[in-house]
Structure prediction request, 217 residues.
Amino acid sequence: MADRDQVVQRLCASGIVAVVRAKSSGQLVEVARAMAAGGVDCIEITLTTPNALAVIAAVREQLGDTVLTGVGSVLDGETARAAILAGAQFVVSPIFNPAILEMAHRYGLPCVPGAFTPTEILNATAAGADLVKVFPAGQLGPGFFKDILAPMPHLRLTPTGGVDLDTAAAFIKAGAKTLGVGSALVTPKAVAAGDFATLTETARKFVKAVADARAGA
Prediction:
């Protein structure tokens, strides 16, 4: 397995992490395959998805290193360990719980804890967070990222919540390292219909939006 820094580099490479939060675990391997076909090769399976650990194991088994498969919505260290043993390659949480960070690092994996205020973000970074998930980012907007990075440019931030094709470029230009994108990318309608072509095309649009924003920046 690649070391933590290499995994973080991959998380940031396309600029998009697909956040999969589904009502059913059926077809999620194909959803992951569709994301990868569109250039989004980092997938976060949230624990609110039924049979999430089985989905993580199936994606790892069937797609291997085609995608980087992580776990999201982790709230404690024990759950992080269960997901890692199922095959998760990175750990994401909506909160900052040091036990989650410690568990991920014990297994040599990146941890992306959630934070909202400047103090929370700095504390998570100081504790060793590989990236900090600013959540819910839609409540703050891209301007928050520009403002907080002015005095603390060393922070590595990823917005989640409220990121769509209209805001993706602005978040990147404001300094976000990568974007966590949920229903705007992994659209429930397309997932339910098994419309993988639409999912792939949407992924391509997000990857292009990030690439264009980075080129412009």
About this structure: The chain has ten helices and nine strands. The mean pLDDT is 96. Strands lie at 16-20, 42-46, 68-72, 91-92, 111-112, 114-115, 132-134, 157-159, 179-181.
